[in-house]
Amino acid sequence: MAREQLGVLNALDVAKTQLYHFTAIVIAGMGFFTDAYDLFCISLVSKLLGRIYYTDLTHPKPGTLPPNVAAAVNGVALCGTLAGQLFFGWLGDKMGRKKVYGMTLILMVLCSVASGLSFSDHPKSVISTLCFFRFWLGFGIGGDYPLSATIMSEYANKKTRGAFIAAVFAMQGFGILTGGIVALIVSSAFDHAFKAPAYSVNRGASLAPQADFVWRIILMVGALPALLTYYWRMKMPETARYTALVAKNAKQAATDMSKVLQVQLEAEDEKLEKITEEKSNRFGLFTKQFAARHGLHLLGTTSTWFLLDIAFYSQNLFQKDIFSAIGWIPKAESMNAIHEVYRIARAQTLIAMCSTVPGYWFTVAFIDYMGRFAIQLMGFFFMTVFMFALAIPYHHWKANHIGFVVIYSFTFFFANFGPNATTFVVPAEIFPARLRSTCHGISAAAGKAGAIVGAFGFLYAAQDKNPTKTDAGYPPGIGVKNSLIMLGVINFFGMVFTFLVPESKGKSLEELTGENEEEEEAPEQQAASARTVPV
């Protein structure tokens, strides 16, 4: 049976949309903006790193990162993110959202700056220090996932909570877009200031010595947005749900939210004590009660995020082929090193503007009308259909590049107007306050495990079956067509596992998690309490 909710939490649930909601979106969202910038900007400069540190002037083509180095440079931040999601997710439930939030931000700022610094100019030293700092950058970024989602869900009202959490996640699109724009500005300025011939014209002169500054500046700019929001993050009070339900301080929760909501709220110590003393509000993560109540939910959130990210992060496999095929990126030897960065950044910026950013904001607009379940199911369905549409007539698309690009763009539009946003939103709503950040961290870490499979497993799998046609240093794989079929099957299973995830639209967090429910007394206890004489 449901009991009356704490006044302070009810006030948050029914509050009209006001300035503090938008402040919270910007503060939490800027963390995500930084995350996306830092994670995705490495793909803009990895070709340049290959040119600077691995070019052999006797070879007709400019240098590229060897497969093991490319995997390390691109993947080390994902590994750090996975570890950070688990660690900071757990810490957010132990120490509080606000305290841990500050730690992740400091780590992100320091490691963004350090990523652009390297000891000596020897390739091994540069790559080693870059990988070291990008791992810890990823570790900080990992903490931002559970904390941003949890803070926003605990501050939001129940009517528009989905849109607010999705808006925080949608800042990722602007982060990717900004990464492309910064790379365009920096590479364009250096290309005009230090003119160099194409590699095919003059191999040695095609790499201006100043090119080494380009990748460093692009990586280090990632520290700025995080630094700008640090002050506001530290001024933000701890969420009332953590203060009341986890720290068990009704007075502090009422004081904090009175300032935020600008209404007078009373501390309800007795009611809070009753709620927190219930057995149903004391079980931990590794208990039978959790498994019975939330086990399938956690399986649903982890499996869907894992399957989605395999497909989402595999997109990099096809980008270089698409860009080259439609003439957005000419052959490497026909450009100098800095101009190549410009062309890659321009292509990625166009993709972000046309496909990535709109998808996120469609989710923000419709999530509280359609519901999380419908959007996630629809997204996985269309991703499955479009992956098969790319895979089955794959040889037809080789001659029809524009059609391939259109369907490819739709695939990732429905990833963002679909499971890429909802897998982030739902784990922040359906688990109890004392385990919310931890469970979101576990779900997000499953997603990053999928990202590692998508980015690297399929990098090897998508290689041509013919050993003479593989990329330099890679063994033969199953080919792009078979890889696309596999991704279609993975998306189909994402659709199946979506049925394990409950709909959370329009309900209060405590209603979803059962934290407001009174325990029914067992018949023996009722009989015992009815006796007047002790036995």
From TrEMBL:
Protein name (record): Phosphate transporter
Q: GO terms for CC?
A: membrane
What species was this sequence derived from?
Malus domestica
Membership in a protein family = Belongs to the major facilitator superfamily. Phosphate:H(+) symporter (TC 2.A.1.9) family.
Residue ranges, annotated region (Disordered): 508-535
* One function term, GO molecular function aspect: symporter activity
**Which terms under GO biological process does the entry name?**
arbuscular mycorrhizal association; cellular response to nutrient levels; phosphate ion transport
The record ties this protein, via CDD domains, to: MFS_PhT
**What's one Pfam family the UniProt record gives for this protein?**
Sugar_tr
Gene of this entry: PHT1-9
